Amino acid sequence: MAEQPELTIQGWGPPGTRVAHVADGALELTADAAVKRTLPKAARKHLARELGWTPRSTPPVPVDSIELAPSRLPVPVRAELVTLLGLENVRDDRDSRLRRTGGKSYLDLLRRRSGDATDAPDAVLTPADTAQTAALLELCTRHGVVVVPFGGGTSVVGGLSGTDVDDRPVVVVDLSRMAGVVSVDVPSSLVTAGPGMRGPALEDALAEHDLTLGHLPQSWEFATLGGYAATRSAGQASTGIGRFDELVTGLTLATPTGVLELGHAPASAAGPDLLGLALGSEGTLGVITEVTVRVRPRPRTEEYEGWSFRSWAAGLAALQRLARHDLLPDVVRLSDPDETRANLMLASGAGARALRGALRGRGHGDGCLLVVGWQGLPTIVRARQRAATSLLREDGGKRAGTRVGESWERHRFEAPYLRDRLLDVGLLVETLETAATWSALPTVYDAARRALREALSTPGTQPLVMTHLSHGYATGGSLYLTVLADRDDDLPIQQWLTAKRAATDAVLAAGGTLTHHHAVGADHRPWLDREIGPRGVDVLRAVKATLDPAGICNPGVLLPS
Ligand SMILES: Cc1cc2nc3c(=O)[nH]c(=O)nc-3n(C[C@H](O)[C@H](O)[C@H](O)COP(=O)(O)OP(=O)(O)OC[C@H]3O[C@@H](n4cnc5c(N)ncnc54)[C@H](O)[C@@H]3O)c2cc1C
């Protein structure tokens, strides 16, 4: 198995590279110098004007100066773990712990960039299989050591804290040694793999069988199958192929009180679906040690194209009608006017200028761009495309051409790299997501934007809130909001927490879900009872008490404290 690159500690990507893009279906990484051009002068000016932001240099502290407290793992416990896993699989050196400190939210990055690693775990364990994982959970239960499963480390909701309210020592269970394909069942379109396997490695392995999983979140380069399952992730083509939780047909969950094998048959009526309890459990019930997912033949063709609409409301109405007729494309991404304008500013060159002119010419100058994509057999793709095209036209959409769609496809993994650049020049950059029914979406959209605007405006500055509908369903869609604002250099964490609190309250009050695909983590846990009700929280607590009676499994996430 090829070595999987480590994520850089203070940002995104493998160390030494700053941007990824897709070329001929493969991911390419570009070195630092070339990336300076990714924020064109026009975009810089646009942002300065919109935000009242003064560009300034705010680089991260050198990695060497990040502070780390000594490991608190008791020596006898460490010795027992070494006996179980081997010396090289129980690590408490600075680099191992630092690399598995927290995830990649804006707050995580602020902490790491300022030299704070007080949430570092006390040790990193790398078990080889389910049996070792179950044994280490039993051992940690006996000694009162908290266990945090760690996949790719890309959580954006505080899912990976190494601190414990009861001040117990914390170990991270890094699943990178369990990262291979276990079996491929071609007739049943199923693959079983280790939880530490990342997207690119899995796709390479499946390509040998002319199969694909097709799950492509923007964190695809680093996130893992176990992490996708534990957080109920959604990918860029989830509208068509389904979210990750819909693709999982079985999994193995090692818990402190035993191993659960869930799933197996293509469908079952044998009582409530326990698989659904493990999906989205975020490490609170144990460690997912194997995942079985439904795969499909590699698409013979992929078509991406752009459309424009006069307004956000017109774009939403058109997608709603596609949904009602079961004609939503596999990729659906409708940008609101703020995001459309910013994207056109960020895209330099003659193509972007021509598109801006064309949109103005058709009266869509303040309108919305829609990117759609279809995958599969050419005849089916063409038929679906034709049917959707005629409805989009009837609803006032105008084709903006394949270049818009292809440009989105080529640049779709770049935003996280660009985020590091924006953090370097004094900006607040964070994302939020939710989902709502078609009828509630406009209210949720207005409420979230208003709350963010009010919370982040100061005399002379205001945030830029850019939104797109990222996934469509028969009954509604998800909204993904990107927020840029002048960073409060003195209290940046407080600045974001205030805005996040206001936006979350507003989204829930308007009928949106707490999270469509980022999961609950530590950041959303105070609101879980508003989502599922106090009895719902009691049910989850009862399940946890059965599987994890000592409460050692990722106690800092999901369930309200
Ligand atoms: C730049 C960026 C882009 C992103 N884009 C998307 C996107 O498009 N769609 C999307 O859904 N999400 C996205 N995310 C969020 C994140 O990538 C997903 O939540 C992903 O599923 C996490 O996978 P991971 O392997 O990195 O898990 P981690 O971050 O390592 O862990 C996430 C949570 O799951 C638990 N966990 C991990 N592995 C296991 C396991 N084997 N057993 C039990 N619990 C486990 C952890 O304890 C933690 O609570 C993005 C994040 C970033 C930073």
TrEMBL record:
InterPro entries hit by this protein: Alkyl-DHAP_Synthase, FAD-bd_oxidored_4_C, FAD-bd_PCMH, FAD-bd_PCMH-like_sf, FAD-bd_PCMH_sub2, FAD-linked_Oxase-like_C, Oxid_FAD_bind_N, Vanillyl_alc_oxidase_C-sub2
Family annotation (PROSITE patterns): FAD_PCMH
Keyword Flavoprotein attached: yes
UniProt superkingdom: Bacteria
Pfam family, one: FAD-oxidase_C
Keyword Coiled coil in annotation: no
All copies of domain FAD-binding PCMH-type, residue ranges: 117-298
Keywords: FAD, Flavoprotein
Family stated for the protein in its record: Belongs to the FAD-binding oxidoreductase/transferase type 4 family.
Official protein name in the record: FAD-binding oxidoreductase
